[in-house]
Amino acid sequence: MLKSLIVLLSFYTSFVVTNEANNKCVDIDSLNEPVGEYFAKNVVPKLEGLHKGDAGKIVVVGGSSEYTGAPYFAAISALKAGADLVYVLTTASAAPVIKSYSPDLIVHPTLSPSTFTAIETVLRKADVVVIGPGLGRTSETVHLTANILNTCRTLRKPLVIDADGLYVISKDVTLVKNYPSPGIIMTPNHLEAKYLKKAVEAMGYKQNWQKYWGPHVSVLVKGASDSFYGNTTWEISDGGSQRRAGGQGDILSGSLGTFFGWAIKANVCASVPTFAVARLTRACNEIAFAAHGRSMTASDMLLQMHAAFEKCFGVV
Ligand SMILES: *[C@@H]1O[C@H](CO)[C@@H](O)[C@H](O)[C@H]1NC(C)=O
To answer: Under a CB-based contact definition with an 8 Å cutoff, are residues 249 and 267 in contact?
Structure first.
């Protein structure tokens, strides 16, 4: 009896220890096949045998009385990339507008300091939270977003931070310093990257600014080429077109929410879903541009999500 208890105990400790040491994720540089193929085989969930919610529950925090398109594009992209349920946490003024764009989204009109308990209830449901599209930059919004970031840290929620969410970070870069695993993927464009860099350097941090937040925070700088900084660094410049439609960034951040959630379940590092999403967005752009040329819009890109997914990953 005592012996079996000891065996059990030692099994338990060794299990805990390996689990600690195994906090390693599969990264791009250790794959011996193309990232797209690896992603399709090991990260994209199978369609059979899943229950509603298994393929991802994403929360998008965004929108304001001025901006309703950005949170819509992010949320619908998360859904079209393959998540089961997408919640939009937005202001009372933006909610009816976003609801009228789409019956596919669950829209909560509770993005206000006076309903923080309701915000927390929605955040708890998320596999990944996408923060930023269309938030605006009023001081009230900056303050509320900072509180949301702190709550997400306590809940250890994986985050994608984009657009005005990055503005909040640039106001106080310590907000997400040493954020816990699975971590954060920030997706600035060149301008946003510039002010994040400036804010980090103002803290007296003179190394590569992208490393400031610690081992679980990665940065994808979007542009004519997309550059990733994390455990690995890489750059993609093929695919896409010269035409950049407003809303393209929201398509990327929303889809990344879905892919990041899948990657975490498959124990795959953040660089893999980020690579996959950069490819997917560029393919949406390329296919939509071939059909619409200069008149291409973000909505045209959304319609190509399935074709782009097949092209990049060879699966439906
Ligand atoms: C970097 O690698 C470490 C060890 O494998 C892992 O814990 C961490 O989550 C990785 N970071 C990202 C952003 O994937």
So the answer is: no
